[in-house]
Each structure stands twice: as C-alpha cells, then as structure tokens.
Specification:
mainly alpha; 300 residues
C-alpha cells in the first residue's frame, strides 16, 4: 500500500475506524438471524419489547466485541492480505490498546444488558459464543486445523438460539434447528471465499481447506455441504415449525445454491467462487426471512 493511501486512511474519521472494527455487515447478518429467532419463539405479534430491543442490542454488542478481538488477533496476517490490509489496525487508524479497550467496553455492556434486563441463560450463551469466536476460533482453531471454519462455525450459528432464549428463557429443539441451518451453511459460504483467496491464505500460513487439501477437494466439500444444507433447511417444515410457503421457498433457494455448488465443482471459472459466496449471504437472509413470513401466515 502506498504512503498516500495510508495517509488518506489515517485521516478518515476516528468513529468510522471504530465502526469498521465491529465488522458491521457481518454483525448485522448475525443480529438479523437473532431477531428472527425472537419472533419465531413467540406467538405472532407478541414478542416482548425488552427481549426485542435490549436483547438485540446485547447480542449486537457481544458480536461487535468478538469482531474487534478478531481484528486484534489477526492484525499481522491482515496486513499481508489484500482483502484485509485496509482494515483499521493494519493502517494504523486505531491502536491495539484502544481496540482492546473498545472490545472490553462492548462486551461488558452486552453482559450488563443481557444479565440485568433479559435473562441469565441468554447472557451465558452469548458470552460462550463471544469466547468461542474470538478466542477458540481466532486464536487457536483458525491456525490449527483445516476444519477451523467447521468447528468454529458453532459460534457464528448461535445468534438465532440467543434470540430464542431472550424471549423464552429456555432452549427449544426448534431453536437448535435454526442453529443447525447456520452451522451447516457456514462451510460452503466461507470455503467459497477461501478458494478465491487461496494464495493469500497460503502466504500467511492459515491452513484453510483449499490451502491444505487443494481447490478441487474443497469444491467437492462445498457441494456435499450444500446438499446437506438443502436437506437441513427442510427440517422446519418436517417438524411442523413452518408451513408450505416456507417449504417452497426453501426448495427454490436451495436449488439455486446447488446450481452454484455444481457449477464450482465442474468449472474452474474464476468468477464462480465469489458469486457463490455472495449468493450464500442472500440465501441465508432470504431463508430466515421466509421463516419469519411463514410464521405470520394463518395455519389451515
């Protein structure tokens, strides 16, 4: 990166640098799944305001705190990768100590909100997911095994469960179905990005699956996980959690995801990994939106 680019980035507003530390787009998707979990946990139209507002805020704060810690732990690798070298820490927009203080403030505020105004179970599970992503995944699993994103995906799959417990104060099998959907979605989502950035991950010695086992093997794994995801996505209908509208929508969304996975398996087109990655985000948002919409439809 040129000195002019670095100077420009450092001149950016400090609030923007702190906002970027929280990975707002990623966190927004996580909180969206949590909010859907809240609505699905309650009869239509009766989500408690405290769970919806303060619960969502607490989950957002915890996810943001984990994102900041991820930035701190990955700062050296981020500085060497084109995708991440413009982040606040590599550019010097924010310092390490400032970032850690920011993470502690966010995490403490999250625990205060969830413990004092929502319920203890949600606070405990949220703390576990924060530690799971920021410490277990980022500090250990990410550099220890090519299955890092599979195992570490449990933390990213937690938000819909957190939303459910924020409303009910207890775990429920249907909440675990939501967890399972996000958990199985995570590998094909992230491995598509890893294929696109395989050279960068290799350069910084992060053992992503395409680095350790090759791109061809990873394409097969993406296809297999996508097939499993389509099957798992039907479970809300099978268990009578959702109705036929959700079923039809899930099948259509899954068919498109399978198209991308098959295209990646049999074609080396350089645009396919990022197109698959982008669609995977649309897929998850649309699937959870379908769950929410179906929840409000009258049952026959």
């Amino acid at each position: 990166m040129s000195s002019d680019s670095t100077a420009t980035l450092r001149a950016a507003p400090r609030w923007r640098a702190y906002l970027d530390l929280t990975k707002p787009r990623v966190v927004a998707l996580l909180v969206f799944t949590a909010v859907v979990g809240m609505f699905l946990a309650a009869p239509p139209g009766v989500v408690p305001w405290r769970a919806l507002t303060l619960g969502s805020a607490g989950i957002w704060l915890a996810a943001a705190s984990a994102a900041v810690i991820n930035h701190v732990l990955d700062r050296q690798a981020d500085a060497r990768m084109a995708r991440t070298q413009r982040r606040p820490l590599p550019t010097g927009s924010v310092g390490v100590s400032q970032s850690l203080i920011f993470a502690v403030v966010l995490g403490s505020a999250s625990m205060a909100l969830l413990t004092g105004w929502v319920n203890t179970l949600t606070a405990v599970l949220t703390l576990a997911s924060l530690v799971g992503y920021a410490v277990v995944y980022t500090a250990y699993l990410k550099r220890a095994t090519p299955q890092n994103i599979v195992i570490g995906g449990a933390a990213g799959a937690a938000p819909p469960v957190l939303g459910w417990t924020a409303v009910t104060g207890s775990l429920d099998p249907h909440a675990l179905l939501l967890f399972l959907i996000v958990f199985v979605w995570t590998p094909p989502h992230f491995w598509a990005l890893a294929i696109h950035r395989v050279d960068e991950y290799a350069k910084v010695d992060i053992p992503m699956l395409p680095v350790t086992h090759g791109v061809a093997f990873t394409r097969v794994q993406i296809l297999l996980y996508t097939v499993l995801l389509v099957v798992v996505s039907l479970l809300p209908y099978v268990t009578h959690m959702s109705g036929p509208v959700y079923l039809v929508g899930a099948l259509v969304l899954g068919a498109v995801f399978l198209y991308y996975a098959l295209a990646m398996r049999f074609s080396a087109r350089p645009d396919l990994p990022m197109r698959t990655f982008a669609y995977s985000i649309t897929y998850l948002m649309a699937l959870f939106a379908l769950l929410l919409a179906d929840h409000y439809l009258p049952r026959g």
